[in-house]
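Input sequence (197 aa), recorded before submission:
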Amino acid sequence: MGPMELHITGDPTADRLLSDDAFALLTGMLLDQQVTMESAFAGPEKIRARLGSLNPAAIAEYDPAEFVEVFKERPAVHRFPGSMAGRVQALAETVHRDWDGDAAAIWTSGNPDGAEVLRRLLALPGFGEQKAKIFLALLGKQCGLRAEGWREASGHYGEQGSYLSVADIVDPASLAKVRASKQAAKAAAKAAKSPAS
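Predicted structure, token format:
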């Protein structure tokens, strides 16, 4: 990844870690469910501060029960410490085993195209289709990913000028736009579910 500066969490230290450490960014994306985006992406810095490292091998080998305690320590890393600590360890194990501990290799090794990067992301534990597409869009829009066809592979998240996900957050104003579009999508989904009165 080239030199980039992400502005997702509102915390300069947490944002710097995301900018400098590919595994931190991947972990933030993994944690991005059922909590605010800022909270999810601030999680890797909390883990790093408590463990002294965000090395995938070290996290994979950490005692699972103790790792849950790391998540529970206040401020908590995630509101579901048990399940999310397990997912982060599974992700760390996969990055350690399949990518030699180098998370960035997932989107750089062998010069993959967008469809291949998406396939690799989908193979990671905890990455479903939506999460993988959003992360691919984040790499393309903010992290200098030059994989051919990344926009197409990331679907509507890759569209220029969309404010749909963390991929589009560069400052407080864009964060507000993304939050509004997420709330509108939720409201529309809710309206679609409720029977017409």
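Checked by second reader. Residues 12-193 form a domain with the Endonuclease III; domain 1 fold (CATH 1.10.340.30).
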